[in-house]
Amino acid sequence: MLEPSNNDELPVIPGKRYFTIGEVSELCAVKPHVLRYWEQEFPQLNPVKRRGNRRYYQRDDVLTIRQIRSLLYDQGFTIGGARQQMTGDVAPVPSDDVQFSQIIKQMIAELEELLLVLKP
Question: How far apart are the C-alpha atoms of 43 and 46, rounded to whole Å?
Fold first, then answer.
């Protein structure tokens, strides 16, 4: 579920029950205002709100934020695309890097065939 790419560099999530927005910001390397924005865009992200409208995130919320971060920052999805990936409404699409790699391999194979034709 969680992409391994850049999330390996993030700190380990402590064994606490609740985290403040500042703690989650540090754990996920995302600014607090971005977290508040993502709450509006991703229905899966719904922290507990207590007195004074203070947000308290649980471990599942932190994992969800890391997944959203990976989709947006590492895999290059738009907000809408990441939302679709999170809800599972769309089949996984190969990333541009995979498509680019496939095109390069195909070109190499064609060039090798051409080289065999041209050799005396």
Answer: 7
Q: Which two tokens stand for residue 118?
A: 């041209």
65 close to 38: Cβ distance less than 8 angstroms: yes
Query: How far is Cα 22 from Cα 114, in angstroms, rounded to an integer?
Result: 59
* CA-based nearest residue to 66, from 84, 50, 86: 86
Q: How far is CA 73 from CA 3, 31, 85, 118, 120, in A?
A: 11, 13, 14, 45, 50
Both tokens assigned to 98? 């995979």
| Contact status, residue 72 vs residue 83, Cβ threshold 8 Å | no
Contact 95, 76 (CB under 8 A): yes
What is residue 48's DSSP assignment? E
List pLDDT tens digits, range 3-62.
444 555 888 888 889 999 999 999 999 999 999 999 999 999 989 998 888 999 999 999
User: Which among 10, 28, 12, 20 is positioned nearest to 65, based on CA atoms?
Assistant: 28
- Alpha-carbon Rg for the chain, nearest whole angstrom, is 21
